[in-house]
Design a protein that fits this description.
- The strands form 4 sheets. This protein has a 7-stranded parallel beta sheet, with helices on both faces. It has a two-stranded parallel sheet with strand order 7-10.
- It has a domain of 212 residues: NAD(P)-binding Rossmann-like Domain (Rossmann fold).
- It is globular and about 55 Å long.
- Helix 1 links the parallel strand 1 and strand 2.
- 40% of the residues lie in helices and 18% in strands.
- The protein is α/β, with parallel strands linked by helices.
- It has 10 helices and 13 strands.
- The protein binds uridine-diphosphate-N-acetylglucosamine.
- The site of uridine-diphosphate-N-acetylglucosamine has 20 residues, from helix 6 and strand 8.
- The site of uridine-diphosphate-N-acetylglucosamine (UD1) has 20 residues, from helix 6 and strand 8.
């Protein structure tokens, strides 16, 4: 089997690549290295790398040749970046997905997994988030992710191309880049504590998130590639539990054995207060639930960093 992983040099894509290689598969990576890193790609004869952009249809068609299954992880992942540049978001996050779907249709690909986001839910208060509830995307990023999800479902209904949209909640783990102020909070706290810097908590720290470990997200993708009932669906990928940012920092400090004194700053504009997923659809359609979980994931992350 030949797998195409877009964004395979990035955080989640590189972990999916590792998993596929461990199972003895061949992997082609399509990545423009705007945020992905060459050191994330294993040195293996079973990996082929195409440097290119999902926004370019001809490049995508070249990358799609002979491919059986696609994991489409490439994106402009920073929400603030898309707020500053909505056209770039549309080109990469939406059109890039349509390019993948059309090239996959032409190449008779068996299934496409699409990396969607909990961002599509926006700031509506109802919890836990279920896939069939009312949603309110609030940024170019979330609008383009939602539009891509609709395109995935349309390609399934209209052309029979099997697609699965996975709505990732707050994913964390090794290789998540802490360098931007808008990077994942766990990568930022971890990096700050490692360098003896005081962590910042925005707001009162009582906002909550559903943190899911990257190895569990990888397994959700592997299940989605094979589960018959998953085709055409949009499915939350999370743990179903919530943790406040105050408790997150305490847990990290306990594991690291370092005391902490957070610096509280005003809450971020547009910050969502609470986020937690209902993961019954993942159980039903993917026969998946997180196995590593939050605390074991944190320990694994700190062992590797
Ligand atoms: C995350 C996703 C985003 C998605 C959203 C959907 C990441 C990096 N972002 O955003 O793509 O749209 O879920 O719900 O995964 N915080 C601090 N101190 C810090 C950094 C962050 O207190 O140094 C706080 C933030 O204000 C926020 C929480 O931690 O309340 C989580 O922040 P972050 O990891 O950036 O993720 P989300 O904002 O939830």
């Amino acid at each position: 089997m030949l797998y195409l992983v877009t964004g395979g040099a990035g955080f989640i894509g590189s972990h999916i690549t590792d998993r596929l290689l461990a199972d003895g598969h061949s992997v082609r990576i399509l990545d423009n290295f705007s945020t992905g890193k060459r050191e994330n790609i294993p040195d293996s004869a079973a990996v082929e790398v195409i440097e290119g952009d999902v926004g370019d249809y001809d490049t995508v068609c070249t990358a799609m040749k002979q491919v059986d299954i696609v994991f489409h992880e490439a994106a402009i992942a920073s929400v603030p970046e898309t707020v500053g540049n909505p056209l770039a978001s549309e080109r990469v996050n939406y059109r890039g997905t349509v390019n993948i779907l059309e090239a996959a249709r032409q190449a008779d690909v068996k299934r496409v997994m699409f990396a969607c986001s909990a961002a599509v839910y926006g700031d509506l208060p109802e919890l836990p988030k279920r896939e069939d509830m009312h949603i309110k995307p609030l940024s170019p990023y979330s609008v383009d992710k939602l539009a891509s999800e609709h395109a995935c479902q349309m390609y399934f209904l209209l052309y029979g191309l099997e697609t699965v949209s996975l709505r990732y909640f707050n994913v964390f783990g090794p290789r998540q880049d802490p360098s931007s102020p808008y990077s994942g909070v766990i990568s930022i706290f971890s990096d700050q504590l490692s360098h003896g810097k005081q962590p910042t908590i925005y707001g009162d720290g009582e906002q909550t998130r559903d943190f899911v470990y990257v190895a569990d997200v990888v397994e959700a993708n592997i299940s989605a590639a094979a589960a018959p009932a998953a085709a055409g669906k949009a499915i939350n990928i999370a743990t179903g539990s919530k943790l406040s940012i105050n408790d997150l920092l305490k847990t990290i400090c306990n594991i690291k054995g370092q005391p902490f004194e957070p610096n509280y700053k005003p809450g971020r504009q547009g910050d969502i207060k609470h986020s937690r997923a209902d993961i019954s659809a993942a159980r039903e359609y993917l026969d998946w639930q997180p196995v590593v979980g939050f605390e074991a994931g944190l320990r694994e992350l700190f062992e590797q960093s």
